[in-house]
Amino acid sequence: MNLPKTKEDLYNTYFLKEDLIKLCRENNLSANGSKQNLLENICNFIENKPIEKVKIKSKTKTQNFEPALDKIIDINYSNNEIHRTFFKKETSQHFKYNVQFMNWMEENKGKETYRKAIEIYTKILQDKKSGKKNIIGKQFEYNQYTRDFFEDNPTLTKEDCIKCWNYKKKQKGNHKYQKEDYQNQINYELRKLRITKV
């Protein structure tokens, strides 16, 4: 895989996390951390700047920890079966982890109680039902693109969205949804058809 020559080339090209890991390994860089960490490592390498090592926190299991409403969230909290069972019992059998809740738990372990966690989980569900949109992290470009695509094109299909995304991610520059994406993708497909017929 070719290493981008400049910071601009790096950030104007869409990479899957697997691609970034491969680039890091090919250039003897640390391949640990989030997509953002990997981008920063590669960027620093391109610009001959020092590269910070990402410290991976090793999780120490708390022996025989049983969650309870008025207990402080375990400092070694993880989204494991013990916690899933607890949240199902205290909320409903339909309990499911979601990114917003998992992030809240990560930020508040060792600080807040499980009772507060359940309040937050309930609020997240209520917000979702009322149509309030949660913030999508910038590393989830596809999810943001999909949301924006369907807000603008409610009658189009998932297949239309995927075709547009596949076209968009090959383009240099930002990969945010724009109104003209659907038409640009159709024009691109038509040009390909004309070329194959010639």
Q: Can you tell me about this structure?
A:
It is a single chain. The protein has 198 residues and is mostly helical. It has three domains: 7-46, no CATH class; 61-135, no CATH class; 141-197, no CATH class. It is 53% helix and 0% strand. It has helices at residues 7-11, 17-26, 35-46, 81-90, 99-108, 114-129, 141-152, 158-169, 181-197.
Main attributes?
198 residues, mainly alpha, 3 domains
Query: Structural class, from helix and strand content?
Result: mainly alpha
Order of helices and strands: HHHHHHHHH
> Got a strand count?
0
Low-confidence stretches: none
What share of residues are in beta strands? under 5%
Largest sheet: none
Number of DSSP helical runs: 9
* Number of spatially distinct domains: 3
Mean pLDDT: 86
Radius of gyration: 22 Å
Distance between the termini: 32 Å
Helix content: 40-55%
Gross geometry: flat
